[in-house]
Amino acid sequence: MAEALRIAVAGLGTVGAGVVKLINARAAEMTARTGRMVTITTVSARDRNRDRGIDVSGYAWVDDARDIADRDDVDVVVELIGGSEGVAKDLVEASLRAGKSVVTANKALIAIHGNELAKLAEENGVALAYEAAVAGGIPIIKALREGLAGNAVSRVSGILNGTCNYILTEMRETGRDFAGVLADAQALGYAEADPTFDVDGIDAAHKLAIMAAIAFKRPVDFDGVSTEGIRKLSSVDIEFARELDYRIKLLGVAELNDGAVLQTVRPCMVSRDAPIAKVESVTNAVVVEGDFVGQTILEGPGAGEGPTASSVASDIIDIAAGRNCPVFGVRADALQPLPAQAPESLFGRYYIRWIVKDQAGVIAEISSVLRDHRISIESLLQRGDSDVGTVPLVIITHGVVEADVRNAVAEISDLDCVVVDAQVIRIVEN
Amino acid sequence: MAEALRIAVAGLGTVGAGVVKLINARAAEMTARTGRMVTITTVSARDRNRDRGIDVSGYAWVDDARDIADRDDVDVVVELIGGSEGVAKDLVEASLRAGKSVVTANKALIAIHGNELAKLAEENGVALAYEAAVAGGIPIIKALREGLAGNAVSRVSGILNGTCNYILTEMRETGRDFAGVLADAQALGYAEADPTFDVDGIDAAHKLAIMAAIAFKRPVDFDGVSTEGIRKLSSVDIEFARELDYRIKLLGVAELNDGAVLQTVRPCMVSRDAPIAKVESVTNAVVVEGDFVGQTILEGPGAGEGPTASSVASDIIDIAAGRNCPVFGVRADALQPLPAQAPESLFGRYYIRWIVKDQAGVIAEISSVLRDHRISIESLLQRGDSDVGTVPLVIITHGVVEADVRNAVAEISDLDCVVVDAQVIRIVEN
């Protein structure tokens, strides 16, 4: 039998503890799968004395994770520290340079520094694997890099952040507003104390940028993701969406349109009957559209100890079995930069909601500006709750150019009749 | 660069033509992915002169596919002939023996001869890959063998036959009976002229047996699948299911229960809100339950030229890239036989529907037999359309043992009041 594959686990939070549990639970089976023993030799975390529900006394303990890169008893470094800079980045770079393979769940690191790290891994002939960085336990990286590799992918989209999907599901089911649902989600552990990365769409944008690199075989471009979170969504919009047979989902969408790449993370209206509309609570789902395969959907738990450990284990097993795949599916020097498509140039239907004064002539005033910007109206809803002197006004447009919508909305915001500026939500047809 | 990987395509039906198209369309990209040229050298089919929409003049033509095994200009044989015996089996065996890797879409061959073929592939140090054999374009084999390999899988289930799912969807949407919908499906090309393999559940059983082998790491056991098709389903059952907020789906279910493996393919009632209930028409879906990952669902096109070619290409790319995985996830000699669980021992809720005479005392008579067999009744529906003198009678049971249901139903079939024997459908809770 080949020599044992020696693992270091850096970061012993929930996920790190889950990885240690999994490797120990599956030791014999991993050998049956790979022909090698897989064994943890080294762990690192900030607090040695914290109770993590695992026995780490048999492993070498390293206080500064960066020191793992120099150790002779480690072949694979599992980086679960997190963050795109600092210790995590130092450790991953040093490990790759030292000829150690790296398995990471760190989406920020791969989204921001993935191109350089991929080159570093290739130069040193080692693996850089990150199945756990995107959509938790769903094996989407493997599906994109290998399982659907025969396809020219035209679109990857999905629900990539369980916290946001939980909040949106709760808002719809309870009629409550964002702030209250967020507070509950924090109490339940579904949202962080500082929820910025989740609710502002950054976490989803990290994941989208990674998938787009693989799907379109071009360098990862996190800065190119147009990102909008869910803070501004009102229960009014959730309710209108329901009436119109839509669901509001925070969608990541990466599309290849005429050789340019669109990357957006933002709330979208999806038809109630679309598969993605039925993905509720903390579940994630990714839809891949390829020229040969058509539409394929992968759905599952997007975060958490068990699902993340499952994906980390899959990467470790691949490395132990000697299965190599270029970091983004093709060699780093074969990734071709592609122009970015701005969302402004998108064509499609939009939901636009204002709060306006409840007075005569408002619709005429607004619709005249829309007409001047070539915005044709498919339907218009106004709620007549005039006790407060203001009412929501909703327009669903026909197919229009997003830039025209933005310009019209900017002009309309100056009208006296507008009390609350427009909420604009793109309607995604599939 | 490494030497070119030379492919022979045996069988040039729709799928074979699709594979040729894909390999030609993606030649440069496959090289970027694998570091090797991938090139077709040889093709084989029955009729050389048929127009297939592809130019095969540049390839060596072989009349008897079996001769491919001996050719020096072939590294990988793509077997798309089909059938568990005859030419397909001869070709695959001879190719593996000759040290050639094999990629196949042949579910019958793998389900019935997979164990011997896996050993043969291992003895000869070559790959036997069959992503296209299960669920068309969905990369479920890779997900089970690699992407979810860290998990102890407790259950694999799904909609594995697009023809049946199409027929059931149509029956529900139109209210028509099986025979009429089947005839339409045949006219549309969604069902074969001889639909036996599809509508009797055999095709789904092949796929289930293959997935169960990987999931539970034991030899593939097609004979151990308890199989029932959809011919006996009546529009009456479809309608009752709808009233009860269920959908009837032909489900393949493989479970590991107390160390024994259950394998069933049969119509099941699934809650209208379950993800699997929303999979309609020719789409396939597979649900995997693992101890670390939880529930993951993969959904997509289950058949057809493009999806099947996509999966064949994925296998070819793996072989070209030198990524090897044991045929069923672990080496053939590490597959451990496990006892089979008979469906009779299952516990659960059941839908039972009779057509009975529309007369007094029928319910008392039937419910008394049910009571004698420990079948407790959760609800009972009777339709009062007595013009014809007979009515459907439906029982939903509480949790009961399936053997008790069968015994009770056998006894009830002898009662004078029963006009049409019981239709028994298991209710699947998730």
Summarize the structure.
2 copies of one chain form a homodimer. With 430 residues, the first copy, chain A, is an alpha/beta fold. Chain A has helices spanning 14-25, 27-34, 87-97, 107-123, 140-147, 162-174, 178-188, 196-199, 202-216, 235-243, 305-320, 362-372, 402-412, and strands at 5-10, 38-44, 60-62, 76-79, 101-104, 128-129, 153-159, 226-227, 246-257, 260-271, 283-290, 294-301, 347-357, 377-382, 390-397, 400-401, 418-428.
Which features would summarize this protein structure in a list?
homodimer; 34% helix; six-stranded parallel sheet; 430 residues; alpha/beta
Question: What layout of secondary structure does this protein have?
Answer:
2 copies of one chain form a homodimer.
Chain A: E1 5-10, H1 14-25, H2 27-34, E2 38-44, E3 60-62, E4 76-79, H3 87-97, E5 101-104, H4 107-123, E6 128-129, H5 140-147, E7 153-159, H6 162-174, H7 178-188, H8 196-199, H9 202-216, E8 226-227, H10 235-243, E9 246-257, E10 260-271, E11 283-290, E12 294-301, H11 305-320, E13 347-357, H12 362-372, E14 377-382, E15 390-397, E16 400-401, H13 402-412, E17 418-428
Parallel strand pairs in A: 1-2, 1-4, 2-3, 4-5, 5-6, 8-10, 10-17
Antiparallel strand pairs in A: 7-9, 7-11, 9-10, 11-12, 13-15, 13-16, 13-17, 14-15
Helix pairs in contact in A: 1-11, 3-4, 4-9, 6-7, 12-13
List the total number of helices of chain A: 13
As a percent range, the share of strand residues of chain A is: 25-35%
Largest interface, C-beta within 8 A: A-B, 58 and 58 residues
Please estimate the helix content of chain A.
25-40%
DSSP strand tally of chain A: 17
Largest sheet of chain A: 11 strands, mixed
Tell me which oligomeric state these chains represent. homodimer
List low-pLDDT spans of chain A: none
Structural class of chain A: alpha/beta
Order of helices and strands of chain A: EHHEEEHEHEHEHHHHEHEEEEHEHEEEHE
Distance between the termini of chain A: 50 Å
Mean pLDDT of chain A: 96
Radius of gyration of chain A from CA coordinates = 24 Å
